[in-house]
Amino acid sequence: MPTERLYYRDCQLIEFSARVIAHAAYGGRTAIVLDRTAFYPTSGGQPFDTGRLGDATVVDVVEGVEGILHVLEGPVPKVGTTVAGAIDQERRVDHTQQHTGQHVLSQAFERIGDFTTLSFHLGADASTIDLDTPILDPAAVRQAEEVANQIVLEDRPILIHFTDAQDVERFGLRKPAQKAGVPRTGEIRIVEVAGFDSSACGGTHVSRTGQIGPIKVRRWERRGTVSRVEFLCGWRALRDYAGRAETTRALAERLSVADVDLLATVNRSLDDLERLRDDVSRLREQILEAEAARLVDRGQPLKNLPSGRLVQQVYVGRSPDELKRLALTLVRTGPCVALLGSSGARCHVVFAQSTGLPFDMNQLLRQVAPLFGGRGGGSRDLAQGGAPNPGPVDTALTEAVRLLQAG
Ligand SMILES: [Zn+2]
What we know:
By secondary structure, this protein is of the alpha+beta class. The chain has helices at 89-113, 138-153, 234-255, 262-298, 320-332, 361-368, 393-406, and strands at residues 4-5, 15-26, 29-34, 36-37, 51-53, 56-64, 67-73, 82-87, 117-122, 127-131, 158-163, 188-193, 197-200, 215-223, 226-233, 300-302, 305-316, 336-343, 347-353, 375-378, 382-387.
């Protein structure tokens, strides 16, 4: 015996009593089947209702071959007993707002652009419909929103009709019944937003469009050949608006501008930031060049190459990247070997020579790296190394100078 769906005729019913007709297992948990229920099972893009059955909590509701399965946590009522059911009203109201809003929005898209809704998903955060168009321009979305909200403001009744396959034609359905996911009971349930939209639907709905509250499209995007439209209705839309208003207020306060000037101010600030980054990068380059010139002045002559310079310098806490850039700047100034190191919590060394000099930085680094407990390598002209702990970098560099000048 299939479960009688009380929500088919009365979506506002949240308290009911029913008889337990069977127990079942679902996903390793116990479920019960009732002779009738007001609990909506997950289907048609809409999630299940939660609530209580007797002293147990209803944690999932699904369609099963035995009827509608109510998955329980807590004491399971015995087969044959009568149990009191109570639907979580806040969740039910939220779902009916999103779902009925979807009917209205889908019809609005039909009216303004002949866009057909291919699917609907009611999510925990927002809901989506997929429209049969890859392109959706902002003006069309605004227009559909206006049509939908006009229907809300007219507070039209939501009517429920029951019909069959022979009679269904006269309702002028937005979507053919066989595609609407209605259980094959022989009876077809039509949900009509009076004078605006008729759909075959098994879901739960508000009783008048005014109860949907605001309908707001939040964003949309192309998904292959369709457009996915994300929207919010009722309390969700209002809470989302409150969150955005607060973000806007806080941003405007932070930037000391009026709300309407936010975008221009942010754009200007980002442009300024880009220019400043360029300036900083150029200044850093100049500082490195000045620093390199000073180091070269103080450098010692290279053995067998008196015009060349050997620069040996240890810093504290200088980054590997900066050390490398300084070394490369040094070797560009003229024939030069740069042996740079940084000590501190970690050790870094960079060995570089000007192109054409006869030494081997890779070999030299491998020779001295054990002196500070590190490792590294590179090419003949540029080698880098380090150790994840403090070490005598100056000792290693002094040894590198000795090897180089002795060679
Ligand atoms: Zn529906």
